[in-house]
């Protein structure tokens, strides 16, 4: 699984933007290797975590003036001897430096190999390692906050606490088994069941949090749907505070989907203005737009169904039933309240707005925020964690049901042991090479 080759890779984005590039090496002998490629061969005398200016050589010729950072074993990101070379961001210079280092004994790093070594050397557990990739990919404050908390070990601590509670239950069951021949129940089943119920509640909360976590991590696609000419495009423009979509009193103006993003309370919301839903159009292009609307409904996580307040909801019955059957989050927005004399909000079931007069538009963003904004509770954003915790929850529920049915303790232990193994897989205490390789191959090469 592990070797201590000297690995090298570009750690900064491979792009023409920016003046400086950073090339990273890790592994025993990194300092001597880089030292052999420099004009002033003195970096082996540098202090730990120090920076010096030097000249990188290409044979007998100067290639570039560089800054060398060195890290002694135990003090680097990987906990190995490590060097970082800051050079000018020239594709030629970068490629030459890497090639010279490879020709002198290094090899190109695999995807995520630096972070993989940090895990294998005990710098991070696997959930913290996964959080590194999430930090790099974070595109909002909420997604960054969750990733940084996970990298600090908050999620790992939560999982270890749950695992400790499950191990306690396993110990109590084992004691009961030890005393079973004496017909003594060391711990009453009701006591164990109560402990199990509390654990199920905690794990269920984590599993349920994935719905919000996925939105925070990947953004929230929101389809604005409704009959033609109810104000969908005007609503999009009002939310964006710019004229992005064409607005016209002519029904069927929007023939294709229009997408735009805004940030709502730390969540990247991708609003999708769609063609009006109707079945009586003879316009072939508009019909294509309606078909695309239906595809957008499938992709959306939240559907805002916009209706004219003067239209009875019974007239939209088919649309509403269709949207409800999609099993997506769904909210009815009643527009044009400015056309209603002495209008008052008669219920809290729907949101009542006037796009034209900018009335109650904030209620839409408030609704999104209340439903999807990050809470102070632990939230999971990683699909692997979600799948494993779902499996763990199923085993816990089986164990609880078995205890209720007076199933023998040794059979209940099968499910309890399975839970412990699932949680080991999350933190990396027990994880297969296949899963490990799958995790790190998603990383960029220099990370």
Précis, in short:
With 447 residues, the protein is of the alpha/beta class.
Characterise this structure:
There is one protein chain. The protein contains 14 helices and twelve strands. A six-stranded mixed sheet has the order 3-4-5-2-1-6. The protein has a six-stranded mixed sheet with strand order 8-9-7-10-11-12, with helices on both faces. It folds into three domains: 7-123, Probable tRNA modification gtpase trme, domain 1 (Gyrase A, domain 2, 2-Layer Sandwich); 136-215 and 382-428, Up-down Bundle (Four Helix Bundle (Hemerythrin (Met), subunit A)), CATH 1.20.120.430; 219-372, P-loop containing nucleotide triphosphate hydrolases (Rossmann fold, 3-Layer(aba) Sandwich), CATH 3.40.50. The protein has helices spanning 30-35, 91-103, 113-120, 126-137, 141-151, 154-178, 189-218, 232-240, 284-299, 317-324, 361-372, 383-404, 409-427, 433-440; strands at 7-10, 20-26, 51-58, 61-71, 82-88, 107-108, 220-226, 258-264, 267-273, 302-308, 329-335, 351-352. Mean pLDDT is 85; it is low at 245-255. The protein is of the alpha/beta class and 447 residues long.
Keywords, separated by commas or semicolons:
Gyrase A, domain 2; 6-stranded mixed β-sheet; 12 strands; 14 helices; Rossmann fold; alpha/beta; Four Helix Bundle (Hemerythrin (Met), subunit A); about 15% strand; about 450 residues; flat
CATH-scheme architecture of the largest domain: 3-Layer(aba) Sandwich
Give me the number of helical elements: 14
Give the C-level CATH assignment of the largest domain.
Alpha Beta
Q: What is the general shape?
A: flat
